[in-house]
Structure formats: structure tokens, C-alpha cells
Design brief:
Pfam family, one: Sulfotransfer_2
EC number: 2.8.2.-
Main location: Golgi
Protein name: Carbohydrate sulfotransferase
Shape: globular
Radius of gyration: 19 Å
Distance between the termini: 36 Å
Keywords: Carbohydrate metabolism, Glycoprotein, Golgi apparatus, Membrane, Signal-anchor, Transferase, Transmembrane, Transmembrane helix
Helix content: 40-55%
Length: 290
Amino acid sequence: MEEIEQRMSQRLKQVAETCAKYKIRPDSVNSADYAIPHPPAPQYSVLYYQFQRKKTVYCPIYKAASTSMLHWLLSMKHINAEYEMKTRHRQISEVARQHYPSIDYPAAAELLKEAKKWMVVRHPFERILSAYRDKLENSTIGREHGTLHFYEKYGRKIVAKYRKATDNQDETRIEPTFAEFVSYLIDTDLTLYADDHWIPYYLFCTPCLINYDVIIQFETLQEDVQLLLNLIGEKRGPSWKHSASVGRSKTELIRSYYGQLSRETIGKLHDKYRIDFELFGYSIDGYLSI
């Protein structure tokens, strides 16, 4: 456990140093001094505050174990999430928000001072691919998870803008390709307009303004969760709701989608999420050689 604690300490140090590099700190007085576009204050409304037991605050990064974590939070209140989702036709985030209401400033700011705070991240490119496959790749399946909504709000517009008549596409396909989705991300100012499923971590959970006690990474998921459990005094951790695709390894999936992109496009996508890469120590090296 000592080695895990040291790794977490180094991880939090890297976050702090990256934030300092861009002149963003929890005690910053004037957001005009920031070296990059950044929210002037934490997004208090997106956080889940748990204070029935030991006070904790969770920031949900969608497509980074958020479903499992929200189920876990609900289990702490003995809520049958699956039952409520099926009988009321609601998303897990809606069920969780009902039982963990958002808290506004200044009460939220006071609670943040006392609570143990945590979030989960994964390689930004893995998350982008996961968001595409789950929300935009096929609008006819997974409608209980909002795929039709995402097609109507994003997919249709992406295709209209980025699909060319000369593109070698299946004429029956109405959804955007992965390459078209990536073009959309590259051309969009994500500091002003981004869905929660692909907004950069630093804009959504604002780790430069909130001193997180634990930042869980997919690469060390089990060990990081155990550290969190020890910190908040819980014995039972989350049950993981989503697993890797059957028959296809993560490497094969990444290669099949990112292999559609040029090195230049991958570089531009990296630029859009550069702060997340710096904050959490991720690299694009493996993607440039696909």
C-alpha cells in the first residue's frame, strides 16, 4: 500500500505542477490571470456530495467508470438502481442525482473543504472512442441510453458538415464515422461547447481548482480504488458494469478506429485535449505508430 500511496502522491503532484504552469490554483483570485481558457470556479452542480457517512465528493467523468461509481454511491444508500432505472425509464445519472442532489455555492465550497474528493480518468483517446461507439456509431441500438438523442443533437449535424459526396461511404449509413466525429471535435471550441461525454477533464472536474485526494486511473484501477476505500472507510467497492468488448482486445479496437486517422489528425486531436494529457501523464506515442 505504501507504493500505491507514493504513486498517488506523485500523480497529485503532477496535477498541481501542471496547474501552476498555467497559473491556475484553488486560491486564484482573478481568472484573467490564467494562461489558458478555464472556468473561473468549480462546476459545483456536477459533483455528487455524500455526507451520510464520511464526507466525500465525487466528480463523474462520463465514459470513465461513471456508471459503476454511481451504482456504488446508490448502494451506500441501499437504493436498487436497476429497479428504478427500469420502472421509471431513467438513466443512472438521473437516479443518482435524485438521491444525491446538487449543492450550490457557498454551501458546496464549504463541503469541499471538509470532504475527501475523488475522480476517475482514463487515456483521453480511449474515452473519445468509447463515447463515439456508445453514443454516435449506431443510432438504432442502445436507444435506452440516448443514442437517438445524440444522433439528432450531434450526429446529423456532423454528417451534414463533414461528409463529402465523394466519400466512399455506405449510402444507407446515417451516423457519423469516427473520422467525421474527430473532425467535429477538432473544429469545436470545447471550452465553450462540449457534451459531458467528451468535454476535457480539466474543464469538467476542474482539478486545478479542487484539491482532489484521489485521482483514479484506469491503468491502476483496482489499486487506486483500494486506496480510496481506505481513505473513506468503506469496505466494499464498486462492481464494474462495463467490460472490454468480447472477442476484441483494447489494442485491436484502438487500432481499427485510430488507424483511420492520419498522423496530422491525431496530432490535432491531441492538441484539443493537451491539458488532460499533461495533467494525468498520458502520451500519444502509441497512437502515432498505428
